[in-house]
Specification:
alpha+beta, Rossmann fold, 6-stranded mixed sheet, 19 helices
């Protein structure tokens, strides 16, 4: 855990935010020539304040002009404490309201109200302004925030504000450094002799020299060559610090503001997000299904299409669930906050919380239930993890896969996962994928229906061939994955597996008297054929020339019960004859060493044709290995029987 903190400003243009920072720190956060010429902040500015404990807190100065809200939004992420700045000679203005709304949407929880330029008004006017500001913040996270009156020009109130900032930061919760590191990029530039440098607020985790990093959503990779925090070169940086990273392996054109630097494999990119929306109380627009909106997340601005889940429209103050669909991928985690602005004209309408990344495209008839959405929005970490596993069981994700979609890391995910595994609410199958028990029950019942239908149509089969069963149960999936799930369904008692087939647990082949007689006839005939079995067609013509259907039913039953062995295409050997052949092979190898075709043919007492069939069959199984004109015995054929 650490105690690094970020302070941010917010408020209307020309209300003295930059001057306030300079009075507090001695640093001019305006870095652009145009900013100094025009006297207003255009882009993000940065400074730091020395804390009593010897550390430094970063400060992000945001532009107040409505034309630069995009830049303001790029700077407010990761703030621990906000200074809402209101000029005494101007009062609470439209951009003050919009900034306050944005801060609330992004779940900023603590702040100080700073009334600036107090030297420009009399006491009576100052009292009116302070009262109005207090009314304006009623019902927001700043409703009970302390209010400080200052003048950057005279220095009045600056010491009091500085002291209050120190007290507030002392109460700030420490951040968990075990989380994967994430840094939304707000600046990119080149330094001669060093290469690409990016800056941003490290919002989680710990990053150090030499770390491999991924650039999201681009998917490019690099390595941290050098780290600076407040102009000092350091071996590592921690969440809550303003950080400059010199990254090897990427060019300046490979990264831009809006990208996110994070631990490799720790974030998944998405083209669709399931979200919970909150429309601002002051929004005077009707938000329609299908609207095109600007989506602000971290330092990125992306266009999105809004698909409302249970509503056709949303109006001021309403909440609802929706899906956001993008034309380009975004790097977002479950639980992340975002802001939405109208496409044209640009104005903030609301924001919300990401519930599910990599969402499925919902049809109105196939949407996730409101109860599921509500649980994802307001549930505990364990409830959210369980719901995601339930919704995504068909994706067969591992614990690491799931963790990469949450704001918390793999260790914390495993912590919330543990009781779910212990209670069998969640099941881990052989390949590591996590399945919810409800999904297993649903799939198990589907498997039972498939097998019941098969048994009804094929009463003499011991089960449904696995190839057919895999295709019916989970079409298009890797056989190994379906087999792992099938094994789990067998453990849960839904099905039974018999090597090459699947069946209902209580299914038993029941022969009619005619079928049993046919089975006995086939069994005796093939057993007597010994090492020279006929083809399947010859067998059918010899025994059941007028009843091919009966022959096929009984013959397939013998195949599934392993009473006959497929030696070569269309030629089956009785298991008794096959076992005797295995014993002769073992005896011959022990006695003679090399296995020579002619000698083995004589030992079988069969023709050369059938001796070749047996030997080539064993070659395929790895029991024998051909070396020139002889074969070597590799493993005991009886053990493989």
């Amino acid at each position: 855990m650490n105690k690094h903190c970020i302070i941010g400003t917010a408020g209307h243009v020309d209300h003295g935010k930059t001057a306030l920072i300079k009075a507090l720190t001695g640093i001019d956060a305006d870095r652009l020539a145009e900013e100094k010429k025009r006297g207003i902040t255009i882009d993000l500015g940065f400074a730091y304040i020395d804390l009593p404990n010897g550390t430094k807190a970063g400060i992000v100065d945001v532009p107040g002009h409505e034309k630069f809200i995009k830049n303001m939004l790029a700077g407010v992420g990761g703030m621990d404490l906000v200074l809402l700045v209101v000029a005494a000679d101007d009062g609470f203005m439209p951009q003050t309201r919009e900034h306050l709304s944005i801060l609330s949407l992004l779940n900023i929880k603590d702040g100080i109200i700073v009334i600036t330029k107090t030297d420009l008004v009399d006491d009576e006017w100052l009292e009116i302004v302070c009262s109005d500001v207090r009314d304006q913040v009623h019902g927001t996270f700043l409703a009970d925030a302390p209010m400080v009156q200052v003048s950057a020009n005279t220095g009045a109130g600056i010491d009091e504000l500085r002291k209050l900032i120190f007290e507030k930061l002392e109460q700030t919760a420490a951040r968990d450094l075990a989380l994967p590191f994430r840094l939304p990029v707000d600046r990119v530039f080149l330094i001669e002799g060093f290469g690409t440098v990016v800056t941003g607020t490290l919002i989680s985790g710990r990053i150090k020299e030499g770390d491999e990093v991924s650039i999201y959503p681009r998917g490019t990779n690099g390595r941290v060559r050098r780290i600076q925090v407040h102009n000092d070169t350091v071996p590592f940086a921690e969440a809550g610090q303003r950080v400059a990273l010199n990254i090897a392996g990427i060019k300046s054109g490979d990264i831009d503001r809006g990208d996110e630097i994070a631990k490799p494999q720790s974030i998944r990119t998405s083209l669709m997000l399931d979200v919970k929306l909150k429309i601002l109380n002051e929004c005077d627009r009707l938000i329609k299904d299908g609207s095109r909106l600007h989506f602000y997340h971290g330092t990125r601005d992306t266009l999105a299409k809004l698909v409302l889940v249970n509503d056709e429209t949303l109006t001021a103050g309403q909440e609802g669930f929706a899906q956001l669909r993008f034309s380009e991928p975004v790097a977002v985690k479950n639980g992340d906050r975002f802001v939405l602005r109208f496409y044209s004209p640009l104005e903030t309408i609301g924001g919300g919380t990401v519930l599910l990344t990599e969402a499925h495209k919902h049809k109105k008839s196939e949407i996730i239930s409101s109860e599921s959405y509500a649980l994802l929005a307001d549930g505990t970490p364990q409830e959210c993890a369980e719901m995601q596993i339930l919704l995504w069981s068909d994706r067969l994700l591992t614990a690491a896969d799931h963790a990469s979609r949450f704001a918390y890391g793999e260790c914390e995910f495993n912590t919330v996962l543990s009781p779910l595994l212990e209670s069998s609410r969640v099941i881990k199958i052989e390949n590591g994928a996590l399945l919810h028990r409800e999904y297993c029950d649903k799939l198990g019942n589907e498997a039972k229906s498939i097998l019941a239908e098969y048994h009804s149509e094929n009463p003499l089969d011991h089960g449904m061939p696995m190839e057919n069963f895999r295709s019916r149960l989970m079409y298009g999936r890797e056989p190994s994955i379906v087999d792992a799930i099938s094994a789990q369904l067998a453990k849960l008692g839904f099905i039974k597996l018999g090597g090459s087939f699947a069946a209902l647990p209580d299914f038993q082949v029941e022969f009619t008297p005619a079928q049993q007689k046919a089975l006995n006839t086939l069994d005796e005939y093939l057993d007597n054929c010994g090492f020279e079995p006929p083809t399947t067609d010859e067998l059918q013509q010899a025994l059941f020339p007028k009843d091919k259907r009966l022959f096929n039913q009984v013959f397939r039953s013998m195949q599934q019960s392993n009473d006959i062995i497929l030696l070569a295409p269309n030629i089956y050997c009785h298991r008794n004859a096959y076992r005797r052949a295995c014993e002769l092979l073992l005896f011959h190898a022990q006695e003679s060493g090399d296995i020579i075709l002619g000698q083995f043919r004589d030992r079988l007492g069969s023709s050369r044709k059938f001796a070749v069939m047996f030997l080539e069959y064993w070659d395929k199984l790895g029991i024998t290995k051909k070396q020139g004109d002889v074969r070597k015995l590799i493993k005991n054929p009886i053990d493989a029987f």
